[in-house]
Amino acid sequence: MTVAAPKNVAVLDANVLYPPSLRDLLMRVAVAGAYKPRWTEEIHAEWIRNVLADYQDVTPAQLDRTRRLMNQAVVNGLVSGYEPLIPTLSLPDANDRHVLAAAIEASATVIVTFNLSDFPNAILSGYGIQALHPDVFLSALFDQETELFLRGVQAHRASLKNPAKTAQDYLAALRISGLQRLTLRLEAFQGVI
């Protein structure tokens, strides 16, 4: 499988924004300049709604702050004007059409998602888009933009203060979160992360 170049635009599905550590890693790597993430207010609403449903100790105000910070951190991160495309699209789950519509509107080459079956590459390829699991996407970014990626990882690890993580602890957390391929690549860089 050929993975799109990292400078290309990637739409982040709600399910990859739901886990706070993965969301933060994706944002830190983007801010470092490894790729250009995109999302919509509809995608924000979906991940926020799911976090609030699952975690009673998290408040809407906290997640709204996260949403605002994400929108401020990435120039043109928030996609709009995609809505007219939604009814023209066909996916296995009609509720996911808004994600593909946003990707088309943003001229994205990638949709980063855990739900690959909801975004068949046979359909997406007609739009020049591919769906990638976050581990595959982040591993490709690492391979193609190692220096920028490592800056993002350094910032991500440095932000973890409660408790702070050693490089080994950090890699173990990435592995547990399902980023095995990325963890293997980062193991050789423990001294700099």
Neighbour order of strands in the largest sheet: 2-1-3-4
Write the CATH architecture name.
Answer: 3-Layer(aba) Sandwich
Radius of gyration: 16 Å
Distance between the amino and carboxyl termini: 28 Å
Structural class: alpha/beta
The number of domains: 1
Relative strand content: 5-15%
Tell me the major beta sheet.
4 strands, parallel
Number of strands: 4
The global form is globular
CATH class type: Alpha Beta
Order of helices and strands: EHHEHHHEHEHHHH
What share of the residues lie within helices?
40-55%
The mean pLDDT is 94
CATH superfamily: 5'-nuclease
Q: Would you tell me which CATH topology applies?
A: Rossmann fold
Descriptive report:
The protein is of the alpha/beta class. The protein has a single domain, classed as Rossmann fold (3-Layer(aba) Sandwich), CATH 3.40.50. 51% of the residues lie in helices and 7% in strands. It is built from ten helices and four strands, in the order βααβαααβαβαααα. It has helices spanning 14-17, 20-31, 41-54, 60-73, 97-105, 121-124, 134-144, 146-159, 167-176, 180-186; strands at residues 9-12, 36-38, 110-112, 130-132. The chain has a four-stranded parallel beta sheet, with helices on both faces. Helix 6 links the parallel strand 3 (110-112) and strand 4.
Which key phrases capture this entry?
single chain; 193 residues; alpha/beta; Rossmann fold; four-stranded parallel β-sheet; 10 helices; 4 strands; 51% helix; 7% strand
Brief characterization of the structure:
This protein is an alpha/beta fold and 193 residues long.
